[in-house]
Design goal:
Blueprint (H helix, E strand, L loop, with lengths): L1 E8 L7 H11 L7 E8 L2 E8 L2 H4 L2 H5 L5 E7 L14 E5 L2 E11 L2 H10 L9 H15 L3 H11 L2 E8 L4 E5 L8 E5 L2 E5 L3 H6 L2 E5 L4 E6 L2 E6 L11 E3 L1 H6 L5 E2 L2 E2 H15 L6 E4 L5 H11 L7 E3 L12 H11 E3 L1 H4 L3 E6 L6 H12 L4 E6 L27 H8 L3 E4 L2 H7 L6 E3 L1 H4 L21
Parallel strand pairs: 14-23, 17-20, 20-21, 21-22
Antiparallel strand pairs: 1-4, 1-10, 2-3, 2-4, 5-6, 6-7, 7-8, 8-12, 9-10, 9-11, 12-13, 15-16, 18-19
Helix pairs in contact: 4-5, 5-6, 9-10, 11-13
The structure holds iron/sulfur cluster.
Length: 469
């Protein structure tokens, strides 16, 4: 998972482009916290700054002031065991026969091994094991054979199979592209003479840009001094209603203030909470949300039950990923470091805690025992998504079915394992009904096993296992 952004000033002005890119990528930090980077086009020469860490760790006024350009692309990257190290940090820029090319992508390419081997056989050399380098290599080869950059992108899309939202930066334009399934979100905004492409519209709101529209599945949108031009990968696949955006964007990934493909993230989560109250009511004194992704659904659940909603757990946002959790004591300590209990709010109360989902269940288990330790009389768990039975090979949640309790256990068994007084999941049908204003379809493969974009190369056993908790 990654957050991507691209900015292009159609008058060739550099004013505010870098700051719009910086604040935009800062607003997409929730999509990836491993590394950040920005590349700018300073009149043909490309400048780049990228490093491991949060956006605010990587950039300061000094680094930003050195990045002046009329177009820019930015990236906030999540972790992936296969794509690791500083080589994997994006954007990536290369010098091709047709000039400088940059790429920022939120992608998982299924046939990457086959393409890499084919390109190697043709003499290509690679410095990293990333999908992005393969995509850039294909693009630059296709660009020689095609009339323009947009056609080269379309040719590249025909060769790669996978899920992606990407922004290319050429010397005279930026080109956004969303895969033919529309699994990853991408939208277009505008502020003054600058067009902005972004994973989510929360980044547009942050910089004061107007939302123009979502990029459609299979759409290639090119922004240059001539304005905005669109092409489509395959006309028969560009009906928006046939798109299949990842349902986990609504469940967990996207920021609550974003709207993706016509559906507000906050509203979808609140509605899931209301639906849960109908499906699995319980007698409790207080409803709390698992911070922070369960909060909107918890509000809806409380409203549906007519029970107070309040804070019971606080999250420490400064706990890093380096925390060592190899023993039981350390894991418990990690929960204590991550969460603080509001004892006066939960003591002697019957609590319902609402979370977005249960993947491995380890954090939920620790939270329940933590709540009991701090005086909760009963702890009931409600989940705003169905049982996660399949690993996601598109880069969103844990890939191995052996790690997913719902793949082999009943709801009652899972409830017992995590130590809940009761456990209730929303159904997939009910969750889909909560997306009442969405203008396309959804991928829900981690719940129903229907992997619409296919599976990775068999040789990629370790494809993009992203730790998710
Ligand atoms: Fe999203 Fe699940 Fe589909 Fe992966 S399998 S893209 S997490 S809905």
């Amino acid at each position: 998972m990654s957050g991507i952004i691209g900015c292009f000033n159609t008058k060739g002005q550099t004013t505010d482009v870098i700051h719009n890119c910086f604040y935009g990528i800062f607003s997409l930090q929730h999509r990836g916290q491993e590394s950040a980077g920005i590349a700018v086009n300073a009149g043909g020469s490309f400048l780049i700054h990228k490093n491991p860490g949060l956006v605010t760790d990587v950039f300061d006024e000094v680094t930003l002031s050195a990045l002046e350009g009329f177009s820019a692309i930015g990236h906030a990257r999540g972790g992936s065991p296969r794509e690791s190290g500083t080589d994997a940090i994006q954007p990536i820029i290369i010098k091709s026969r047709v000039g400088n090319i940059g790429l920022t992508s939120d992608s998982v390419i299924m046939n990457d091994n086959a393409i890499r081997e084919e390109l190697k056989n043709q003499g290509a050399i690679f410095q990293t094991n990333t999908d992005s380098e393969i995509i850039l290599s294909l693009f630059s080869r296709n660009r020689i054979k095609t009339e323009d950059s947009e056609s080269a992108v379309l040719e590249t899309m025909k060769e790669i199979h996978g899920v992606y939202a990407m922004i290319f930066m050429a010397e005279d334009r930026i080109i956004g592209v969303r895969d033919p399934y529309g699994l990853r979100p991408l939208c277009l905004g505008k502020i003054g003479d600058t067009y902005v492409l972004s994973s989510e519209n929360c980044a547009l709101d942050a910089i004061g840009a107007d939302f123009v529209r979502d990029i459609e599945p299979g759409e290639v949108v090119s922004i240059s001094t001539e304005g905005v031009k669109s092409l489509f990968y395959n006309q028969s696949e560009t009906n928006k209603k046939d798109g299949k955006v990842c349902i986990f964007e609504y469940v967990y990934v996207a920021r609550p203030d974003s709207v993706i493909d016509g559906m507000s993230i906050f509203d979808s989560r609140y509605r899931a909470g209301l639906a849960l109250a109908k499906l699995h009511p319980c007698d409790v004194d207080l409803v709390i949300g698992a911070p922070d992704s369960g909060n909107a659904a918890a509000e809806g659940f409380a409203a549906g039950l007519g029970v107070p909603y309040g804070a019971g757990l606080l999250k420490n946002r400064y706990v890093g990923r380096t925390f060592i959790k190899s023993t039981q004591t350390q894991r418990e300590l990690a929960v204590r470091m991550k969460f603080a209990a509001l004892k006066t709010a939960i003591k002697d109360k019957r609590i319902a805690i609402v979370d977005d989902s249960l993947v491995r269940g380890t954090t939920t288990k620790h939270i329940i025992s933590f709540l009991r330790e701090n005086g909760a009389r009963e702890v009931h768990v409600r989940l705003a998504s169905p049982p996660v039975k399949f690993g996601c090979c598109y880069g969103v949640n844990a890939s191995s079915e052996t790690e997913l309790p719902a793949a082999t256990m009943s709801v009652e068994e899972i409830g017992k394992m995590i130590g809940a007084d009761s456990l209730g999941y929303i159904t997939l049908d009910a969750l889909k009904e909560c997306l009442n204003t969405i203008d396309c379809g959804v991928c829900s493969a981690c719940f129903d096993g229907n992997f619409i974009a296919g599976m990775p190369d068999a040789s990629n056993d370790d494809v993009h296992k992203v730790t998710y908790s």
